[in-house]
Amino acid sequence: MAYPLCTPLGRFGVVTSEDGPHRCVASIPAGGEVNPLTGAPTIAPLAMLVDHAGGLVNHHRRDADEWTVTSELSLELRPDAVEVIATAPDVPVVATAVPCGPKGEVALGLCEFTHRDVVLATATVRSFFISAPGRVAKFPDGPTGPPPPVSLAERMAVTVAEAGGAAQVLLQAKDPVLDNSLGIVHGGVSAMALEMVAAAAINAGRTDEPLRTASLRVNFMREFQSGPESRYVGTALRVGRRTGIAEAQAVGVDGLPAIIARVTAYR
Q1: Domain Thioesterase spans what residues (predicted)?
Q2: What domains appear along the chain, each with residue ranges and CATH number?
Q3: For residues 168 and 237, is the Cβ–Cβ distance under 8 A?
Q4: Does the predicted model carry a pTM greater than 0.85?
């Protein structure tokens, strides 16, 4: 299933090939994408795929009067993931998600990411089951096709506010296409941006080989609304010669953190 270009999944070229309660398979094009803060190749699109595939397999376990929201996601990458993707940039990354354990108030989905049969990463998504809100919107109809031929940052509607210093900042402009069915910024979009600002903070001022994202952990605490003051802020916690750790926050229009993340990177 290809999604309309006027939806978050369609905007980034996500395609779901298997969709059910026991297994979900989806893909995303990830080759040739760059971090707008550093200009370096990025694995950020995989964060979008984590949220979709892992969240989808959890979503299938809901009752008729329930909806799901992601509470946390994690992504663990092989060291050379960017290089593997670059060897065949036109081949999408595929995620296979399966449920783990029984359904309770929270569900856990497990994912494996492959690129031409090479395992790139493993991931998890935890989802809360909530009473189905009345404001859930159906995906709009529209044309499908490849993602727009513009940069990843343009598709995400993010712009660089600060780069090169202690804090790395991307501003999240309002774009209805990026909102999910609850009318807030899609969790996959936010996860991508949080990885970008954290990776940039780790590599700020670095003159030798860059440190590559090895793990991404994201916690969704509150609704994140886009707007003039909405932003993603990455700050390095510790950076050494061979490893670095950074935290990132999605700060909403009210000035409060809505989503937090931590990235660990290695040489």
Answers
A1: 183-250
A2: 8-266 (2.40.160.210)
A3: no
A4: yes
